[in-house]
Structures are given as structure tokens and as C-alpha cells.
Input
Amino acid sequence: MNAQQRPSGLLDPRVMGKFSGLYLVAKTVVEGFISGLHKSLYRGFSIEFAGHREYTAGDDLRYLDWKVFGRTDRTYVRVFREETNVKTHILLDISRSMEYTSGSITKKQYGIWLAACLSYLMISQKDAVGLILLDSDIRRQIKPGSTTVHLHHLLSQLENLPLGKTTSLAAVLHRIALNIKRRSLIILISDLFDEPDKVINGLVHFRHHHHEVIVFQILDAAELDFSFSGHFQFVDMESGEKMDGDSLALSAGYRQAVQSFLRHYQRQCSANNISYARAVTETPFDYFLYQYLNLRARTV
Output
């Protein structure tokens, strides 16, 4: 992918919101910017014989089919296809905290677009992908599939999400880990607003079962820099609890607590061989996904 083909930022939320459906969004991003960047999000694959084609100068002579040559007196080479054999489970947090936005896009909408693009990408490379919607419980679960019909079903579910409730990630992660028997790729999309140590323990449960785990933490810029001024009443989106406070008095302690919260997740994910990436909703999601996959392609 050359410089002219890299995500330009034109596919920002305001532009993507004008598209008629998730299928078009995913197709535009994946085929326009990401396809071919990385063969698979997973390292496992099998080699499958795909057929023959005529030999051309420069072909590897190891793949000449001498039996065909003996029958036809013409030179053909055997062609193989790499076919990944992974099952992917996308876990999307739909809890009420994911509804927050200080701008034009909620964390949930950002997560929906990421899930849609990843689903399109996985199925386009012949992998199976499933979807689990969760908050304090498993709200909806779709088993992995790899057909175009299955992709449309996944995207339809993402376009019609149930209303989320409170967050309780850790307990739900343990339940899911117990139910996924075959080694899989687990992709969690969440703001991770829960007790960090308990969430990490839930993610480590997947690692104990030899799953590969990717975590995309989605945050709003205001949650990072506390960009408020004056006196405010803050309302917890999940509990409804209210708190009055002056932004100037709260800002320094808040930023320090947030940075500690984020560092803890980043360090613990690294320590447990869990891939971690943080996205801010003001960053065009196509650019975020491109950067992540580009880095992964160089390191995996």
C-alpha cells in the first residue's frame, strides 16, 4: 500500500454516517484501504491445492507437475492456496457507558464500525467469524460462519443492537471463555470501564485455553483530557448517580487517575501476551484500523 492509498481521513464518522448501511461501510474501508495489508489476523493456516496453470519463466521448478507433462508434453505448475483455519469471536461491549460522546459519534458506534470492518475482512479471507454482544450478561450470540449470507446476518445484528445495561465485563468474559472450546481468535471491543484486575483475569482465562486475544479499548477524547470548564453536574450513564463538582478542582486528579487506569491495562495486557490498542473516537476509524493492522503485519 503506497502513500496515496493510505487512509486519508476522508472516511471519518461524519462521512461514513452518510452511507446507507454497514455492508457498504465495511466494503469501502476493507477493499479501499486494508485488503491485502495482512493475509490473516491469525498466524495459523493450511496449504490447499488449488489447481494448475501453465509454466512461465521465473516459476519455481519445484512445483512443475511432471505427471501432467508426461501426459500432455506441456509444462504446468501446481498452484496452492493459503487458507486460514481460524474461528474469530468478536465481543462487542454494548453497555450504557459505550453510549457516551462529547462530539458526533458514540463509542458504541465506533465499535460497531470496527466490528463490521473486521467481520468483512475475516470472511473475505475465508475465516469464520461470530459475534457476541455483552454488558453485564451475554445479550446476543452468533456462532462463527464464513459465508456472505452469514456476513449480512452479522451486519444486520450490528445495525439493530439491543439496549445495553450496566457493565460487568469480568464475569461475562469468564463465561464465554468456558464455552469456546476450539482455539480461536478473541477480539474484545470495549471502553473497559470495569475493575481492571478482574477484566484482565477474564482475558487471561482465554489465554489459558490457548486463544489469541486482541483488545480494542474505545474512548472519547473528553474522557481522556477532561475538557470541561466551570461548575458541572456529572451523571453516571449506568447507575444514574449524580455528582456536582467544579471542573478546575477535579481535572488534575481525574487526569492522573485516567492515566494510571490506562497504563495498568496496557502493562497487564503486554505481560499476558494480549494485543492491546486504544482508539479515540475523534480519530477516523479506518485510519486507526489501518495503523493497527500495519503494525501487526510487521510484528506477527
